[in-house]
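Quick check before the chapter quiz. The format below is the same one you will see on the exam, so make sure you can read both the input and the output lines.
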Amino acid sequence: MVTQTTQYSLRAGAPQPISECQLQSNQTNLQIQRTKGFVLQTFKAEKIVTESCEDKEELLCSSDMVGLGGNYLNANYTAQRFLNPDNGAIVFVSKETLDFEVIEEDEVPGAGNL
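Here is the expected output.
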């Protein structure tokens, strides 16, 4: 049985400081900037889908990976300690991550609460 999970990741630049100017009343009358906080500027989001399976018998090929023209970012497999009783094939626990899809921020579930 294949289980599909979806992860969302906001694309963001470095945190930018929010500053306020204060006038210092001394002989030089200098203006001093003080950081009041930071704001994180985001631009779009990534939707990442991972498929997990506990009884997979076939592994992805190299050509299925993004670097060789496929749709998968990575894949992990662990062989089980038993063979398929029907055909004697090795059974794997698998985790395969598809290439991310860039989406608008408002498509992220719960993003309106931020």
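If your answer matched, good. The chain has one domain: 2-113.
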